[in-house]
Amino acid sequence: MHKLIKQPVSSYTEFEELQWSSDKPIPPVGTEIDVPMNNIGRSKVLKYFVEHGYIGLLVQPLDPPAWYIKQNGVNEPCHVYPPETKQLRKEKV
Fold first, then answer.
1. Is the pTM of this model over 0.85?
2. Measured distance CA(89)–CA(81) in Å, rounded
3. Considering the chain, what is the average pLDDT of its residues?
4. Among 18, 28, 61, 67, which is least packed, fewest CB within 10 Å?
5. 86, 33 contact by CB (below 8 A)
């Protein structure tokens, strides 16, 4: 669907420390989570990514909404961060 951007192997960004924006552990690959943001819904964790030093999840929506299918395709995964999921939001104190 999208053009693959290739970077040279020597091109990377280093971080002193990665951030996980949840008080819960990183879910293992294969875990199902709920992504209420934009009505993405139940999704399966495929792998992880890092953007600006923050760890995120690449998830496969199990039953994506019509707008998502039209915009991205039925089998396209999406990138989410913990606050965008129901199970990984930080507990309110």
1. no
2. 9
3. 89
4. 28
5. yes
